[in-house]
Design a protein that fits this description.
Layout (H helix, E strand, L loop, with lengths): L5 H13 L10 H6 L6 E4 L7 H11 L4 E6 L3 H9 L4 E5 L3 H18 L8 E4 L2 E4 L5 E3 L2 E3 L3 H11 L5 E3 H9 L6 H16 L5 E4 L3 E4 L5
Parallel strand pairs: 1-2, 2-3
Antiparallel strand pairs: 4-5, 5-6, 6-7, 8-10, 9-10
Bound molecules: calcium ion.
Calcium ion binds next to loops.
C-alpha cells in the first residue's frame, strides 16, 4: 500500500489484515520503488514526493505486478491514463473495504488465470500478424510491435478466434475483472492505440453495440 495519509492508510491496512491480507505500507513513491516486490500494489495517485503515475510507470518498466490506482473523485480522466500506463484497475476515494476487496480479488484472479493453459498454443497467427503468448512478443511480418500489457491482452483475445466477435463485457471481465461502466472508455483508448500500432484500423473492427473482432486487411 502506497498511501501518505495515515487517516486512510491505518484503518484500511487494519481492515485488509482482518480479511487475511498481508499489508506492507509505505508513505511515498521512493519507498514504494525501493520495497521488495509484493503480489499487488495499491497505489495512491497523490504522493508527497512524486506523481503516482510516475511510480506506476517505473514499477511497470521492470515488473508485471498488478497495480490498482487509488484516485480522488473527479479524476476520471486520469484513471484512463492510469490504465493506459499499465495499471490493472482503479478505485475512487472514498471507497468501502468491501469494494476494494472485490477489486483486489478480481485482479488477483485475473493474474492467476493469465498464464497460458497447458493445451493453449504458444503462438497465434493471422496473416502477417503473429502473437507469442509465451513471450508476449508481437510481430507484423519482420517488424516487432511494442504493445502495452492491456493492448497485448486485447489483441490476444481477438486473435484466439479471428473474425469472431468479442463483446465489450467479455473484454472488461477478462482484462479488468469488472464491467464497471467508466472503464468502457478505457477499452476505446486501448483499442485506438492498438489500431495505430497495427498500422491499419481494419485489424480491429468495431461491431457497433456489441464489441470488436479481428479482421485481416486485404484477406
Ligand atoms: Ca495522497
Amino acid at each position: 500500500m502506497v498511501e501518505d495519509e495515515d487517516s486512510i492508510a491505518v484503518p484500511l491496512a487494519d481492515g485488509l489484515r482482518r480479511e487475511g491480507f498481508d499489508v506492507e505500507r509505505v508513505a511515498n513513491g521512493a519507498d514504494a520503488l525501493a520495497a521488495p516486490e509484493p503480489d499487488l500494489v495499491l497505489l495512491d495517485l497523490r504522493l508527497p514526493d512524486m506523481d503516482g503515475y510516475e511510480v506506476a510507470r517505473q514499477i511497470r518498466a521492470r515488473s508485471r505486478v498488478p497495480i490498482i490506482m487509488v484516485t480522488a473523485r473527479g479524476e476520471e480522466v486520469d484513471r484512463v491514463v492510469g490504465l493506459e500506463i499499465g495499471a490493472d484497475d482503479s478505485v475512487v476515494k472514498p471507497f468501502g473495504l468491501r469494494e476494494l476487496i472485490a477489486r483486489l480479488n478480481a485482479v488477483m484472479r485475473r493474474v492467476a488465470d493469465g498464464g497460458p493453459a497447458a493445451d493453449e498454443p504458444d503462438e497465434l497467427a493471422a496473416g502477417p500478424l503473429v502473437v507469442s503468448l509465451r513471450t508476449r512478443r508481437v510481430t507484423m511480418g519482420d517488424d516487432e510491435l511494442h504493445l502495452t500489457p492491456r493492448e497485448f491482452d486485447i489483441l490476444a483475445m481477438l486473435m484466439h478466434d479471428p473474425g469472431a466477435v468479442v463483446s465489450r463485457d467479455d473484454l472488461l471481465r477478462r482484462l479488468w475483472g469488472t464491467t464497471w461502466a467508466v472503464q468502457t472508455k478505457a477499452i476505446d483508448v486501448h483499442v485506438s492505440s492498438l489500431r495505430r500500432k497495427l498500422g491499419d484500423p481494419s485489424w480491429v473492427q468495431t461491431v457497433r453495440g456489441v464489441g470488436f473482432r479481428l479482421g485481416v486487411p486485404g484477406a
